[in-house]
Amino acid sequence: MPHSSQNKALAQGDLVFVTGATGLLGSNLVRELVARGLRVRGLVRSPEKAQRFLADAGDAFEPVVGDMQRVADFAAKLAGCAVVFHTAAYFREYYQPGSHEDALDAINIQGTLALMQAADEARVPCFVHTSSSGTIGRKPDGSPGDEDTPASAQQLKNGYFRSKVDGDRKIAAFQPESAMRVVEILPGWMWGPGDAAPTAAGQLVLDYLARKIPIIPDGGASTVDARDVANAMIASVSRARHGERYIVAGTFRTLAEDLAELERRSGVRGPRLRVPYALQLAFAAFEELRARLTGGALLVSRAGLEVIHARHAVSSAKAERELGATFRPFSQTLDDSIAWYRAHGFIPSAAEHIPRVA
Question: Could you tell me if 242 and 126 are in contact, meaning their C-beta atoms sit under 8 angstroms apart?
Answer without folding.
Answer: no
